[in-house]
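Quick start: read one record
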Amino acid sequence: MHRVMKIIAIDPGAIHCGVAEFVDGRCWRVAEYDPDGLFEYLDMMMSSASEDVELVVVESFRLYPGKAAAQAWSKMGTVEVIGVIRFLTTQHEVELLEQGAWVKKIARVRMKAQGVDNLAVTQRMGRHCADAVEHGWYFLKGQG
């Protein structure tokens, strides 16, 4: 019997979080959640034996020197979201992989070269969703 491999890729944000589900290497579903909705979704997906999530891929956060001043007095909401994702994956014993934002550029180039168009996702669902697709795609097909 074939074992289904499920990966969830996330572009986290303080207000909007893009999510892409990959089943057996193909993008199955794309959605946008607010952080609380994301946490509910992840908890449900990882606690359901029928879902069998193997890996969560999330864009890591880096505070770039040129943007540090803009974050003064900020609660760093994206960092908080990543922390809750880390907590949930630990609780459910699901592997977590953080990828730098830089992988999206490589993913876009390689997706285009292979005839995969992510522009429709960007136009229909927004940049967070498209970024989530790119993170998942990079992990599955674009490394190396």
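The chain has one domain: 6-61+75-142.
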